[in-house]
Amino acid sequence: MHPVKIKQKPEHYLVLEQVLHMGQTPNTTTRIGKAAAAILQKVLVRVAKKAIEARMSPNDKPRSLELAYYEADALERHLRINRGLFRAGTYEYNAVVSIAHELDQKLQ
């Protein structure tokens, strides 16, 4: 499968990092749940690096993140499940929905 590349504003990576930390994690008692949790942990490390770059760099240029297909799929599912962490209409909620939508379009 082809890699999936998303391009987002730097502050969206801060929101992504927050969702990955706060969000409901997969059930880790099953083999499938353990695999999903491992994939999300791997994605979290990469998103955290982008979030650190966003905090350190003063420019607001969009930054890209390249994910393997299975990583993009896991992240998209995680965002859809956990978008309820934020009230609808807030900046964070809209960022989560926007990123999930972009991932969904690229996974087609």
What amount of the residues lies in strands?
5-15%
Number of helices: 4
The helicity comes to 55-70%
Biggest beta sheet summary: 2 strands, antiparallel
Number of strands: 2
Contiguous uncertain segments of 5+ residues: none
**Main β-sheet, spatial strand arrangement:** 1-2
- Integer-rounded radius of gyration: 13 Å
Shape: globular
Summing up helix and strand content along with how strands pair, one would put the structural category as: mainly alpha
Number of separate domains = 1
Mean pLDDT across residues: 89
Order of helices and strands: EHHEHH
Termini separation comes to 12 Å
Task: Describe this structure as you would to a colleague.
With 108 residues, the chain is mainly α. The chain has one domain. Helix content is 65%, strand content 9%. The protein has 4 helices and 2 strands; from the N terminus they run βααβαα. The protein has a two-stranded antiparallel ribbon. α1 packs antiparallel against α2, α1 packs across α4 and α3 packs antiparallel against α4. The chain is globular, with a radius of gyration of 13 Å.
